Sequence to fold (533 residues):
Amino acid sequence: MTEAQIRFVSLLRRECSRFWKIKRQTLGAPLLETFLYISVFGAALGSRVKSLHGYDYVVFIVPGLIMMAWAINAFSNNSSSILQQKFQRAIDDQLSSPASPLELLLAFSLGGFLRGLLISTLTFLCATALFAVSGDHSLPVHHPLVLLAALFLVGFFFSQLGVLVGVRAEQFDDVSFAQTFILQPLIFLGGVFYSSALLPEPYRTLTHLNPVYYMINLVRYGFLGYTEASVALSLGLLAVAVAALFTVNLRLFTTGYKLRA
Amino acid sequence: MAFEPQTDAASTSGTPGGPPALAITDLVKQYPTGTQALKGVSLHIPEGAFFGLLGPNGAGKSTLIHCTTGLAGPTSGSIEVFGHDAVQHYAEARKAVGLAPQDLNLDHFLTLEETLDFHGGYFGMNKKARKERAAELLDAFSLSGKRNDRANTLSGGMKRRLILARALMHRPRFLILDEPTAGVDVELRLELWHYVQRINQEGTTILLTTHYLEEAEQLCDRVAFINGGEIVAEGTSADLAKQYGVGSLEDAYLELVGRKELSRASLGEDIA
Fold:
């Protein structure tokens, strides 16, 4: 490996070792949370709703839960990791190394991305296992390429968002505010647990103004083949949003905004 | 504890007559708040020197170090480490520098071994080299028994040792010690000075900031006083004492900060 490759792998290993060391909190808790959503909503609400657009209710919500798990974990991992290191000033060890802003940004981004990937994969496997055991449902994958593209873009988008909030944050309250008051409402109101087609106005239009709605639709389309929005347009806009956020973050790392004095 | 220098002599010896270890020219640093921490500082530290940078709190010592190591961006001026630009194309410059900062800035999630291993990785060392070097340094700093403990479980003195070990991990040619003995007991302080002096003799250039002036006088072959963001005097300890018309570096420093009544020579006079 070249020096640059060793450097990047070390930066990334550091990010992964952080969440791996506290895996009960960073992997166990989110996995349990998603499992409870599937159990509670699937069992309780599913017995009344029966089906949505031809799919069993529990099957209809699982794609959104997988996306939500990736999004929230990618975001919270990166925002917390950067802020913690800023508080301890441990980040100075990376900042005073020969690593470039691009290497630093990619390593910080991929830490959360990989944590989200791990939890989403485990969520998918758990859901598949649950459905297999119950024998009533199955989780199809109708458009694997769209699904992979959507999940990767969503994961990278929320990783970048986590980096942005972590860099800008000055206290832990800033991170929890962004997660509790902005991110989670957007995700929950984006249609993880319901179809916007069932909503009366003005809630349907309001849902359509929520960017997360299009992300959930993309992932649901990948799994179930059902969508309420244009797949091509949603993918295109998501790719543009990811690129824009990455550019902003790269600028922050290059100028050292709230990282260097 | 017995610090045994493990510095690779080959990696620390430079080319005779080569560029200085540190060449700072007209360095200005103004913070967004408007505070001008450095007001056109110029400083040259020759390779192999043991150089002391002394000044009161807030004089600009740490800012100068931060600008040199990439932890602060200069407003204007240039910084070169062994002839390599340390601001724009900084990779080579940073490879040559080891920083032991004033703050105990260890990552609480990492063990001692991981702390050194990751640091070596950030500087491009391969796995085998990292493993060997980490073992050498943990041994040299009497930290081997705690290699698998998390850094946050260490005492203050042990954290200092780990920070110094981390700074030396990638075998820097230029070691910056920012208040390395703050809060450290006498025994450890002296052992640390012996260690640092030996690696200096083996070729590593040292930049030291400390409030222990008698030690700076003993260790450093050149000293600069910085005050209010400007280098106000530079030379050997004897030069500075002579320049201020006093007998020691400490008294010269007290003259600089306008507190000559605190001179050790006048200790006890009030009682008498």
